[in-house]
Amino acid sequence: MIRLSRKQRVLIELFKERYAYFILKFEFNFVDSQGKAAALATVQIDVENAERFGVKYFSPEGDQRHPLILHCSISGSVERCIYAILEKVS
């Protein structure tokens, strides 16, 4: 298990305009032995792709609406997890 210390840093970026399909995105990163940041997991709230791909639902009032889509990759990918484990062991 990787334990977080109280000295962990957080980077927060706020943008004046939306530049992608999501309105919120956050990532969990770690810094490897070379000082490079690597993303392990990401979460995004997507406001465009439901309409693009025709995803709809009916509201209680009977209207068709496009939902928000939650993209969630808790472990990133297998390769990212193996990379993080190898970095911690070496």
Describe the protein's architecture and organization.
- There is one protein chain.
- The chain is an alpha+beta fold.
- The protein has one domain (22-89).
- It has 2 helices and 5 strands.
- The protein is elongated.
Topology:
Blueprint: E1 22-31, E2 37-46, H1 49-52, E3 57-58, E4 64-65, E5 69-73, H2 78-89
Antiparallel strand pairs: 1-2, 2-5, 3-4
The averaged pLDDT comes out at 81
Helix/strand order: EEHEEEH
Strand content: 25-35%
Q: Tally of extended strands?
A: 5
Low-confidence stretches: none
Structural class: alpha+beta
Sheet having the most strands: 3 strands, antiparallel
The helix fraction, in percent, is 10-25%
| Tally of DSSP helical segments | 2
User: What separation lies between the terminal Cα atoms?
Assistant: 15 Å
Q: How much is the radius of gyration in Å?
A: 18 Å
Coarse morphology: elongated
Q: Biggest sheet, strands in spatial order?
A: 1-2-5
Number of domains: 1
Summarize the structure.
This protein is of the alpha+beta class.
